Amino acid sequence: MLTRLHDVLRLRTSPPIFFGSAGVIIVFVLVTIVFTDPLDAAVTVASEWLYTNLGWFYILGLTLFLVFLIYIALSRFGRVRLGPHDEVPEHSGPAWFAMLFAAGIGSILMFWGVAEPISHFGDPPRGPSLGIEPETTAAAADAMSFTFYHFTLHTWAIFTLPALCFAYFIHKRNLPPRVSSIFQPILGERIHGPVGVFIDVVSIVGTVFGVAVSLGLGALQINSGIHRVLGVPESAVWQLVIIGVVGGVAMISVALGLDRGIKVLSNVNIWMAVGVLVFILLTGSTLFVLRGTIESLGRYVVNLPELALWNDTFANTGWQTEWTVFYWAWTISWSPFVGIFIARISKGRTIRQFVSGVLLVPAGFSVLWFGVFGFSAFDIELNRGGGLVESVVEQGNVPGALFAFLEHYPAPTLLSVIAIILVVVFFITSVDSAALVTDTMANGHEDFNPLGQRIFWAVAIAVVTATLLVFSGSGGLEALEKIIVLVGLPFFVMGYFQMYAMHRALREDAGELPAMRTRTWKKVLPPEEYERRQDEDEHDTSETVVEPEALDEPPVLRDPYVDQDHPTGTPGTLPARTGSAKLPGHRPKRTTRPPQSERQDREDPE
């Protein structure tokens, strides 16, 4: 039945994944509108239970992700290229960084650049446990340490882990661009079965909700900005209008594609953001800001082990659940879309280049951004009359923090207009990227995608955003915080399996040092797409497969799947599969080891 509906609508996707994901989203929207109060009560109970009992799991998990990435980058696997051996990067370094920034964290920086440091300055995270008084220099120092903790290495570890897995399995093993492909070393061809469909449905739904939370935060911030500039009310009606406008422009960008849409918007926006950053630095207390940023970076590095594992055990104020756990759950829920997007633009880079670039470059910019905005906000509070703590902390106007801050600088109206444009464009690129990537995850390929499918996902994100902000029982920021901690839980669980699958795949494909030669894999298509292309004369399917299959093999090494009386290979090498390209779950073919001369010929000439 789903296939017939799929054909009637002239789609080109996987019916179980597409309709399964769409069905969950539609049911959520309808149930939220019809049964607002009961659903809100259930979500409140579930989210409070998770905050109380599993906050430690989120904090520990993310730190383990970061440690794993550093290990992979520094190990011999760091020299593996994400793509063919002679592949060169498709995008230049500056263009690559601009797209990373716009799709991953640009919108986050705009929303929290002032709100995060000033919130912790007025309400110190470790005030009860360490005796830190609000609005003091000690509070400022602690505020910047937690701000860097929230928005540098740990945040980008959330994006880097799935991005690395996607890049390896898409570009190296030629698997479909789906979350289920990451689990190929564990599931084998079952990535196309019910388990794989379930993984992809959960990932798509979680991505839609994660991006919806980001769009919701953006709508609140834009509404606050135009309220200060134009005097329009901060209301649900205006938030719906904003969501509609951003969603509409995102659909146009979706239609234009990656190179003409996202790439152009990203490059323009990054330069505008840098311009605002430089203006704030030069027209404020420049020396105070620069000295404070460098000092805070050193304090963050020294305190990172403690911050990464801090759970507020003794004071138990609930602060960490409202901030850290919310951040990690929110960020990881849209990590699949950011991960695939980063993987698409990163083909040709080595694992070491990839991890260091995705972790360190955006994190370094985040240090500069939060250092400038954070210490400029502290300067306003300590030396220039203040007012930010009262607005953000006491009155709870977190979305308006940036615009209250800009009122202390020359040409505040012009700055506010520029800031609104920046926020709008960052959220357009986020919705644009999410629609493209979500459609790709549903299809299992990046070719022949009807425009209507991509537009559907942009509309779905906008509708879910409106539902969470306006029609849920709590509404506003509180509703976004409660729902996202539930959505983030399965992604943390999958993260552990992603680490295992990635490491296992590297061990399976790796050759001996120093050449690091790896298998070459045939392009894998989802079964339904493979059948479609066989029926269409214009497509050549001779080089594509449904079950993962290798074109060649690395040098034959000690194999745990065959008779251990065989020679063990060169000392210091890792086990590698030989013979059949079947994955675990299949009985491997028994092959005869080639003569020594043939094995030497197979080694990389380098």
Topology overview:
Blueprint: H1 2-8, H2 15-34, H3 36-74, H4 93-122, H5 127-130, H6 137-151, H7 153-172, H8 184-187, H9 194-230, H10 236-283, H11 286-309, H12 319-333, H13 335-344, H14 351-383, H15 388-394, H16 401-406, H17 412-443, H18 451-471, H19 476-509, E1 523-524, H20 527-535, E2 544-545, H21 596-602
Parallel strand pairs: 1-2
Separation, N- and C-terminal Cα atoms: 54 Å
- With strands numbered from the N-terminus, the spatial order across the biggest sheet is 1-2
In DSSP terms (H or I, runs of 4 or more residues), the helix count works out at: 21
Alpha-beta content class: mainly alpha
Sum up the overall morphology in one term: globular
Rounded Rg: 25 Å
SSE pattern, N- to C-terminal: HHHHHHHHHHHHHHHHHHHEHEH
* Low-pLDDT windows of residues: 512-516, 555-606
> Main sheet, how many strands, which sense, barrel?
2 strands, parallel
Number of DSSP strands?
2
Mean pLDDT: 82
Q: Give the fraction of residues assigned to helices.
A: 55-70%
Strand coverage percent: under 5%
Structure commentary:
β1 (523-524), α20 and β2 form a beta-alpha-beta unit. The protein has helices at residues 2-8, 15-34, 36-74, 93-122, 127-130, 137-151, 153-172, 184-187, 194-230, 236-283, 286-309, 319-333, 335-344, 351-383, 388-394, 401-406, 412-443, 451-471, 476-509, 527-535, 596-602, and strands spanning 523-524, 544-545. The protein starts with a helix and ends with a helix. With 606 residues, it is an all-alpha fold. Mean pLDDT is 82; it is low at 512-516 and 555-606.
